[in-house]
Each structure stands twice: as structure tokens, then as C-alpha cells.
Prior knowledge:
By secondary structure, this protein is an alpha/beta fold. 17% of the residues lie in helices and 26% in strands. The protein has helices at 98-102, 105-109, 128-133, 140-149, 165-170, 174-180; strands spanning 4-7, 29-34, 44-48, 56-58, 79-80, 83-87, 95-96, 113-117, 137-138, 154-157, 187-190, 202-209, 217-226. Strands 1, 4, 5, 6, 8, 10, 11, 12 and 13 form a 9-stranded mixed β-sheet that branches.
Amino acid sequence: xxxxxxxxxxxxxxxxxxxxxxxxxxxxxxxxxxxxxxxxxxxxxxxxxxxxxxxxxxxxxxxxxxxxxxxxxxxxxxxxxxxxxxxxxxxxxxxxxxxxxxxxxxxxxxxxxxxxxxxxxxxxxxxxxxxxxxxxxxxxxxxxxxxxxxxxxxxxxxxxxxxxxxxxxxxxxxxxxxxxxxxxxxxxxxxxxxxxxxxxxxxxxxxxxxxxxxxxxxxxxxxxxxx
Length: 227
Ligand SMILES: [Zn+2]
């Protein structure tokens, strides 16, 4: 079969991007500055968007005041030549535990990006209350297990965030801190669509953010090479 490229980022737009003001995830806002329909020479717009709205990356500065910002990364840090998709179906209130990952240990060892597919993204637009509040995150134990034992450059999850935000708040966002506060380059990719990868042979993943100075996060265009 020939190589194909597929997009894993959700499009940015009011119908596509979840907005949860309570979690500082504002809806993107497109504002026309000039419109042909109004007799202007061209269409020109501006956009306002939260850096954690829609498919995005978190980098160390998100939880570490001295941590790296998006512009401190090299482009090669956003290209993954040994990505691994693991299928770990999870439901409301469950967490991804070390036991869920241990039987993939050898393969994680050889990987630079771990993509965890829980299937919970089926609720993203169908029942956004579940997707926003009740989603299964990675447990603090699983975060420590992954951070301590592997040389991953990043982790991606088909969830609003890598840890359930209400749970994370109550335990000091341990999962984010474990992964991001280690004074090394690391990216977390959140709110990504992993469904197109099921049954495919994954070759490479590209996660290209906006190179924003001093930013702790950025919307990201993620695409995969499959073959
Ligand atoms: Zn984020």
C-alpha cells in the first residue's frame, strides 16, 4: 500500500472546538477586519484563541516557571519517527494505570511518541459534559511510570487533558507536573483525534505548533504518515 498522510488535529472553529470557560479554555473567535462582501478589496480576519483550546501541545512552562517555552524547541522535536499507538479503552471515571501499559513496555522502549487511544473521544461532540468533566485521565502512578522508565519525547491522548482536570485540581496536577517539570524537553498533545489511526500502520507523526515566543502551549496541527 502507498503512504498516506492523515490529519489528527480537530479543525479550529466554534462548532469543532470545545469551550470550557471554567477551565480557561475559551472558544476561538474569528473577527473580520475587512470583507469583500462589504465592498473591501480583500478578506482579512483576526482570531482570538486560547492556547489550550482544541488540539494543542503543553510544554514545560505550563507548570514550571523556569521550564521551556514553545519557541525553545527545535522543529525536529515536533517530528516523531517512532510513534506508538496503544489502544486502552477507558470509560467514565476510570484512569490509565501502569498495568495498562506494562504489556507494551518493550514497544514503548523503542518509541519517541506514545499515543494513547481510550476511545472516549466518541463523546466529544455527542455528550460534551462527559468529555469535559468525566473523562478518564492518566493516573499519577502511570505518569511516574512513563516519565521514569522511557525516553519518550511526548505523549498524546484522545482526551480533553492528560489528567481529568477536576481530579487534577484536587491533587495538585500531579500528572502534568510529573511529565513537564523535569527540566527537559517534553510535549503533551491533548484533545487529539486518534480514531483515523485504528487499523493503520503508523510510520511518522508530525505535531507542528505555532512558534509563539514565551508560550506554555500552542494550538497544533498534528498529522501522521501511514502506510
Ligand atoms: Zn493544555
